[in-house]
Design goal:
Blueprint (H helix, E strand, L loop, with lengths): L3 H8 L6 H6 L4 E5 L9 E6 L2 E7 L5 E5 L13 E3 L2 E3 L6 E2 L5 E3 L20 E4 L2 E4 L13 H4 L5 E8 L3 H6 L38 H7 L4 E6 L3 E9 L5 E9 L3 E5 L4 E11 L2 E10 L6 H9 L2 E2 L4 E2 L11 H6 L9 H10 L17 H18 L23 E5 L4 H14 L8
Antiparallel strand pairs: 1-10, 2-3, 3-4, 5-6, 6-7, 7-8, 9-10, 11-17, 12-13, 13-14, 14-15, 14-20, 15-16, 16-17, 18-19
The structure holds FE2/S2 (inorganic) cluster (FES) and fe (ii) ion.
The site of FE2/S2 (inorganic) cluster has 8 residues, from loops.
Length: 438
């Protein structure tokens, strides 16, 4: 349990808030590249409680500026995309990508008032299917050399989905390795032929045991948490009856990202990005260490479950997440279908818009959550004191030296799980067509 004051400090994201100040020091996913692949590339973006508009001008350059015109507040999303900027349809004021007003066509000829009018604007870059914004102080940090950024575009598929809850509870489901044995339990194992692009549908490690069976049979993992340069490394060990050990390594990348194995060939790097205090998007980069990703198939699978343009899931609180008590009896632990994302969405949305952590009771398996909150609290203290270079990945560690992180699933023949895990990871990297750095 924590105090209401601390819960507010950890969860709220608007300008000037504790967690908001920390999150702003990192590149944030603002939109999928897909969203701008339309005849008129202008989309609304709400990020960390700030209302913005993202556009691509005639030269292909990106701009992210304030949503409301500094003249009288009209919505720039309906702006005219012309003259390498965005023009407000109300009185024609024109803004360039830096947010500078460069013309006020209705004001008296020769006026220079526009020189002093500037709307909010943030730097943006595009990388492997996602457009990123930096909303913090000072120069934006370099991108880490993580697999999802180093892999060529052919080997990364990016998608997103809306969750109607605070970002922190969304992120915390990803650093809780114990829940997979329950929330995602399949009472019967599925045909693996149907598993492409889905989590927990592969065989466990280097065995023939379906991952779903292993999670079901061994529900009490031993969880180890290590501090790293990027955040936390979580190792979940499941001791099997025959003496072998199942090892699953996942990561928390500070501040709001997790990196997890999806199958032997793919990892998922997932950001839990605050829209505002009570809504967030997950942005996932699915990175293949083998064949190029089949983006058409992966997009089609996910578009069956989401509506555009806001990427809201079709199963949600309004239709009880498709809950079916018969299915809960016979097929799945939740009764909410086979899509693991829906299970996680129910878990985090059902806590309420912002989880009331004054009422929770954390157990031993919540060690990842406890350690993460400690890290976030320290970052909040440093950011409050203006010590931005003391934050994780800003503290003298050159992000370009950060590789991996190792996110893996393996079975060790004996107690020696560390070397079994390293070997499986090294083998995967050795056969990876784009990975020159092991
Ligand atoms: S409100 Fe935008 S130009 Fe007047
Ligand atoms: Fe989950």
């Amino acid at each position: 349990m924590i105090s209401q004051e601390l819960n507010d400090s950890l969860t709220r994201v608007g300008p000037g808030t504790d967690a908001g100040r920390v999150l702003r020091q990192y590149w944030q996913p603002a939109a999928l590249s897909d969203e701008l692949m339309v005849p008129r590339p202008v989309v609304p973006v709400t990020l960390l409680g700030e209302r913005l508009v993202l556009f691509r001008d005639e030269t292909g350059a990106l701009g992210l500026i304030g949503r409301h015109c500094p003249h009288r507040g009209a919505d720039m999303c309906f702006g005219r995309l012309e003259d390498n900027g965005l023009r407000c349809p109300f009185h024609g004021w024109h803004f360039d990508r830096s947010g500078q007003c460069i013309e006020q066509p209705g004001e008296p000829e020769g006026g220079r008032m526009h020189e002093n009018i500037r709307t909010t604007s943030y730097p943006v870059v595009e990388k492997n299917g996602i457009i990123w914004a930096y909303m913090g102080q000072g120069t934006p940090p370099a991108f880490p050399n993580f697999d999802c950024f180093r892999a060529p575009d052919t080997h990364v598929f990016a998608f997103k989905g809306l969750w109607e809850c605070n970002w922190l509870q969304a992120m915390e489901v990803g650093i809780d390795p114990a829940h997979a044995s329950f929330l995602h339990r399949f009472l019967e194992d599925e045909d693996p032929a149907d598993s492409y692009g889905k989590q927990f549908r592969d065989k466990a490690g280097n065995t023939n045991i379906p991952m779903t069976k292993l999670l079901r049979d061994y529900p009490r993992p031993e969880i180890l948490v290590d501090d790293t340069d990027y955040g936390l490394k979580l190792t979940a060990l499941r001791r099997m009856d025959d003496g072998r050990t199942h090892v699953r390594v996942t990561n928390q990348i500070f501040p709001e990202t997790i990196c997890i194995p999806m199958s032997r060939e793919m990892t998922i790097t997932q950001w839990h990005v605050p829209i505002d205090d009570t809504h967030c998007y997950w942005y996932s980069m699915f990175t293949s260490f083998g064949k190029p990703v089949d983006k058409a198939v992966m997009r089609e699978q996910r578009l069956k479950e989401h509506r555009l343009p806001d990427y809201a899931p079709l199963k949600n609180a309004r239709n009880n997440y498709g809950y079916n008590p018969e299915e809960q009896k016979r097929e799945t632990y939740t009764g909410m279908g086979l899509d693991i994302n829906v299970h996680d969405q129910w878990a985090v949305e059902s806590m309420g818009a912002i989880q009331d952590r004054t009422q929770e009771h954390l157990g031993k398996t919540d060690i990842g959550i406890i350690r993460y909150r400690r890290m976030l609290r320290a970052a909040i203290e440093n950011a409050r004191a203006g010590k931005f270079d003391a934050l994780p990945m800003c503290n003298g560690v050159d992000p370009a030296t950060l590789y991996g992180p190792l996110s893996n699933d393996a079975i060790a023949a004996d107690e020696n799980w560390e070397s079994a895990n390293a070997t499986t990871d090294a083998e995967r990297r050795a056969s990876c067509p784009w990975d020159a750095k092991v």
